[in-house]
Design goal:
Blueprint: E1 2-7, H1 14-24, H2 28-35, E2 42-51, E3 54-63, E4 66-67, E5 88-89, E6 103-104, E7 113-114, H3 116-124, H4 130-151, E8 160-161, H5 162-182, E9 186-189, E10 192-193, E11 195-196, E12 198-201, E13 204-207, H6 211-216, E14 222-223, E15 229-230, H7 234-243, E16 246-247, E17 254-262, E18 272-279, E19 285-295, H8 300-312, E20 317-324, E21 330-338, H9 343-353, E22 360-367, E23 370-378, E24 381-390, E25 393-398, H10 400-410, H11 414-428
Parallel strand pairs: 1-9, 9-16, 10-14
Antiparallel strand pairs: 1-18, 2-3, 3-4, 5-6, 7-8, 11-15, 12-13, 17-18, 19-21, 19-22, 20-21, 23-24, 24-25
Helix pairs in contact: 1-5, 3-4, 4-5, 4-7, 8-9, 10-11
């Protein structure tokens, strides 16, 4: 099974994770080309770097020609009782764990703030696949929820600093895109070193790890260690929480490639995230959680919107079924599938996004086929095929996005294109 193991002995930041994954890619130019088409005026370069004599890559994000040093979703809780002035900013510096200054100013340069909905709109319009967009929105949803809880304000009142938000969008999208390009079957990570001590922010001196980071790391093993400073940023924590299947020691792996994502700050230990790409024995079973509730007082449109929001917030799957409740009431049974680490967070999301007053939890073991992908040549050009293997079973079918794109471009019925692609796959077996 193609497995990625992320070693977070010096914490994790978005740009460091992106740098480590970049080193694993076969098509680095393709990755950089896509990243440099994301947002006008924003450029991404891979810069050779070293830490404690170890060579690696530092990903540099420039916004209109300037490198943003405080990109880990700096936010301004404008209506929080903790934030009496609407001009303060929480800067949680992403690049290389550089967390040594705060800002308290009167918006002399016309800074703007970006809401979670505006972030989602930006992500929806990026030139990336639906899967990359979905993952990026789910990561940002985690960050917004964590900041909301940390500052004691509703998610709708969270505002990300405009420039820092653009930088963090690039980091988050870059990690999601790199993982899609790597096509791994399983992502694992070490316990996370958060650092120790205190850092300054607009509110004053706060402990490490920062409150938002603590919220994001709930249910995940982490430790403070002896390094003074903030090693794990909220963006790094959110990415690890979203993508990693398990946290613990590295499993027995046949390593094919190793990547080093280097930060800019110097510490006594090598300041990097290390990514190992290799093969492990197939693990075709795991524990999952089913969150269930019955809803009889929402419109179909409202339920559909709730399902979309739950997927954006990290659910593995969401389904609905029509049922009849007591007294003959027509209702909808909602089932949300998620990872055990996400149980409480998504249970609260179900209560927030629907009218249900309660959620039932089922702990299940699922057996699954390991997913992979391959390309085939057809009369329409190169088409992606989804594969699934395990227990001596092999399944294949066309990738929906590829079939849908052909149908749109050729002005053909989707079913016609789909059936032709299925026939082509059968011929190539």
């Amino acid at each position: 099974m193609k497995t990625l193991y992320l070693e977070c002995n010096m914490g994790a930041a978005g740009d460091m994770l992106m740098g480590a994954l970049y080193e694993l890619l076969e098509h680095k130019d393709e990755f950089l080309h896509t990243m440099n088409q994301l947002i006008p005026g924003v450029t991404v370069t891979a810069q050779a770097a070293s830490t404690c004599g170890i060579a690696g890559t530092h990903m540099v994000v420039n916004i209109h020609g300037e490198q943003e040093e405080s990109s880990d979703t700096p936010m301004n809780a404008e209506h929080s009782s903790m934030e009496p002035h609407a001009h303060h900013h929480d800067y949680e510096h992403e690049h290389g764990h550089n967390h040594e200054h705060s800002h308290d100013h009167e918006h002399e340069h016309g800074h703007h703030h970006t809401t979670p909905d505006e972030i989602a709109s930006i992500l929806d319009n990026l030139p990336v696949s639906c899967e990359v967009c979905r993952n990026a929105k789910a990561v940002y949803s985690r960050i917004a929820d964590a900041e909301s809880k940390a500052h004691g304000v509703p998610v709708t009142e969270i505002h990300f600093h405009e420039v820092g938000a653009l930088d963090a969008i690039v980091d988050v999208t870059g990690v999601c895109l790199a993982l899609e390009m790597l096509g791994v079957d399983s992502i694992l990570a070490s316990p996370i070193h958060t650092g120790s001590g205190h850092v300054c922010c607009a509110h004053g001196i706060v402990p490490v790890p920062a409150p938002a980071t603590v919220n994001l790391l709930e249910g995940i093993p982490y430790y403070s260690g002896q390094i003074q400073g903030e090693l794990c940023t909220p963006t790094g924590a959110a990415l690890l929480a979203h993508f990693s299947k398990k946290f613990g020691p590295m499993p027995v792996m046949t390593i094919k490639k190793t990547g080093y994502g280097v930060g800019t700050k110097e510490f006594p230990a090598a300041n990097c995230v290390r990514a190992f790409l290799g093969e492990t024995e197939s693990e075709n079973s795991e524990e999952i959680i089913e969150l269930c509730c019955h809803i009889d007082d929402m419109t179909a449109e409202g339920v559909a919107f709730a399902c979309e929001r739950l997927m954006e917030q990290g659910a593995l799957d969401v389904s609905t079924a029509s049922i009849t409740m007591k007294k003959g009431r027509t209702a909808i049974a909602l089932t949300v599938v998620c990872k055990p680490l996400d149980e409480e967070r998504l249970a609260q999301a179900v209560l927030r996004e629907t009218t249900s007053n309660g959620v039932r939890v089922r702990r299940c073991t699922r057996y699954f086929l390991t997913s992979s992908a391959r390309s085939i040549e057809t009369e329409y050009g190169t088409v992606q095929v989804k594969c699934a293997d395990g227990f001596g079973i092999h399944h294949e079918k066309p990738e929906y996005d590829s079939a849908a794109l052909i149908a749109k471009e050729k002005h053909l019925p989707f079913e016609q294109v789909w059936n032709q692609l299925v026939d082509r796959i059968r011929l190539l077996k």
